[in-house]
Every structure is written in C-alpha cells, then in structure tokens.
Amino acid sequence: MTRRRALGLAALMAVAAAAAGYGVRRWWHGAADIERASLEALFSTPLANLSGGRDTLGRWRGQVLVVNFWATWCAPCREEIPLFVRMQARLGSRGLQFVGIAIDRPEPVSAFQREYAINYPILIGGLETMELLRSTGNRSGVLPYTLIIDRAGRLVHRKLGVLKEE
Questions:
Q1: How far apart are CA 97 and CA 87, in angstroms?
Q2: 96-103 and 64-70 as β-strands: parallel, antiparallel, unpaired?
Q3: pLDDT per residue over 24-55, tens digit each?
Q4: Cα gap 148→98, rounded to integer Å
Q5: Alpha helices, DSSP H only, in the chain?
Q6: I need a surface site. Which of 27, 71, 80, 104 has the fewest CB within 10 A?
Q7: Own/partner pairs for 116-119, CB < 8 Å, 24+ apart?
Q8: pTM of the prediction?
Q9: What is the pLDDT of residues 52-71, one digit of tens each?
C-alpha cells in the first residue's frame, strides 16, 4: 500500500470514528432528555388519592422514592406489597418513601389497603396512567412495575415484575 493511500485510509477511519462518536453522543443525550421529560410528567401528573382528593408525586420530591404500579387483581403485586409495607416501616424515617399507583378502581383499592395494612400513600391511576408506564420504560404495560428515584429526582432503577428485598 502506498503512503498516500495509507494516509487516506487513516483519514477516512478518523472521520468515521468522529461521526460514530457524535451519533452515540446524540443518541445518549436524546435518551436522557426523554427520560427527564418522562420523569417530570410522572412527578407532575395529578392522580386521585383514597381520600377523594388529588396528589402528584412531586409532593415527595427530595426523598428516595419507590413508585410501584400495581392492581388488586395482580397476583405478583399481592406478593410484593407486604415487603413494601415492611420496608416503609423500617426505612421510612431515613427518607425512603413508597408510593403505590393502583391501576384500578378506588373501592377495591381501599379495601385492599385495609386488608394489607398498607402504610404508604396509594394513588389511583386510570388508562391515562398506562402512558406513564410506557414513557418510563414499561413498553408492554405489565404489572407490577417499580421505579426507584433518588433524592435528586433521577431514575436509578426500574423493575418489571416482582421486586425482591435484595
């Protein structure tokens, strides 16, 4: 290979690497922007509470927030909720806050809350809440779905299916 051809090939590889780096950077920051927008929608969407009023997750901003999407008819949800009750009791005073978003009607949710002695806030989501699930990473809309958000409001973990204590 001639020197001129080798330099041309090296220049071409450098341009390709720079273009790939630029593309990855745009993709990465675009994903971050989408995630920020999804979390902001999650924090600002008013949802019914069991007292007949409305709340937003923004009320608990600044705490480590565990947001659990669930339903009374969901067997895996029933499995993990007693764990959440224990963890809220044990770690709530240290800034951990569970919030359940039930995709259900208020009457069965209220009865479920009493039966399971749920000690954390429960909000009621309807079909519009399914878009919040999808925009935060649950494309299939399967329950349970749990998000863990740090004190700075960043999504640090998401779990589709039963969340285990470990």
A1: 9
A2: parallel
A3: 443 443 345 557 888 999 999 999 999 999 99
A4: 9
A5: 3-44, 75-91, 106-116, 127-135
A6: 27
A7: 116/78, 116/81, 116/82, 116/85, 117/85, 118/81, 118/84, 118/85, 119/85, 119/88, 119/89, 119/92
A8: 0.78
A9: 999 999 999 999 999 999 99
